[in-house]
Amino acid sequence: MSSAGEVSEGGVRLLLVGSPPDVARVEAAAEACVAERRHLLVLFRGASAAEGGPSGADHRNDEKKREEHEEANRLTRTARDLESACDAIARVAPVLEFTPLLAECGWDAKHARARAEALARERKGKDVVVDDATGTSSDVFEKDENVENVRASRGFAKVSVGGTFDRLHAGHRLLLAAAALATHKEGTLFVGVTGEALLANKSDKNKIQPYATRANNAERFLESVWCPASEKNASMESKKKIKTGPLDGSPPLASTVEDMRALVVSRETLGGAAAVNAQRRDLGFPPLEIIAVGVVGGVGDSDEARERTKLSSSALRKAAE
To answer: For the residues of 117-172, what is the DSSP string, one character each?
Structure first.
């Protein structure tokens, strides 16, 4: 492995970030990966202790409630860190191939290094550059106890997420990674990919990748997000967790599967999430937990301004003309 100061074209860059991530270091790593044609792996090492835990005698006497509170705080913090890093990448390299590696999905420094080396071999023997932005000691790969505290993340048994996923950009990667974060390690993630029928009236339909390509890209990305027991059976293990299908105008599985537990959306589509829960209510089903992530790549001081300037597949298709 090489240090971040050494430049070699191709290969992989492994960036270790703390909580919250150093945004400037994330941007610099993304720019370097574009210049050197590297794949970027971002390992979220997080904080060593839970933040904002409960206090008071009642909580001290209720261990289960305390643990649930800490779990909710940790997942919220991880989702916030993920969003921050993806937003930084979107600003400087919107279509960069990068993979977030989360402790909740089984990743620690040792497994991240193994993935980086395996990916570098796939890229014809190119090297791995390690960029440690956590401020930790140089022996970070020798022992990483933090992941042991979060690997058994509760999560949800059945989670749903949907999108067009054309030209898989940083916003898509944030949405899919957040869905993986919300899924229990033994659960199932249902991925709805907009089908050809729903794209028939789009003005730039001929520029949108075929359904099979978009579905395959979403699956492959999710397979890379979950940490396998070994690189040899990585794809087989991940495929058990992912169920991909077309969104064709029929009611989505999030509405019609009674034991679905959570729906992951972008904050701009919260209205659609509310409609899904309304459909579930009409069927007598319990409401879904709605997990929302923000837009990435936008600029401005308000949500409206960021929404107008957000990263989008339409803009990327236009730029490619």
So the answer is: HHHHHHTTT--EEEEEES---TTTTT---GGGGTTT---EEEEEEEE---S--HHH
Q: Report, as an integer, the average pLDDT of 93-97.
A: 91
The CB density around residue 34, as the number of other CB atoms within 10 Å, is: 13
Q: 164: closest CA among 100, 96, 273, 246?
A: 246
In angstroms, the CA 213 to CA 205 distance is 14
Report the DSSP beta bridge partners of residue 163: 193
* Residues whose CB is less than 8 angstroms from the CB of residue 298 and which lie 6 or more positions away in sequence, other chains included: 305, 306, 307, 308, 309, 310, 311
pTM value? 0.83
Q: On the CB side of 23, how many CA atoms lie within 13 Å of its CA?
A: 11
Give dist(CA 2, CA 24) in Å, integer. Answer: 21
Residue with tokens 């992989």: 12
Per-residue pLDDT tens over the stretch 1-53: 555 544 456 899 999 999 999 999 999 999 999 999 999 999 998 654 444 44
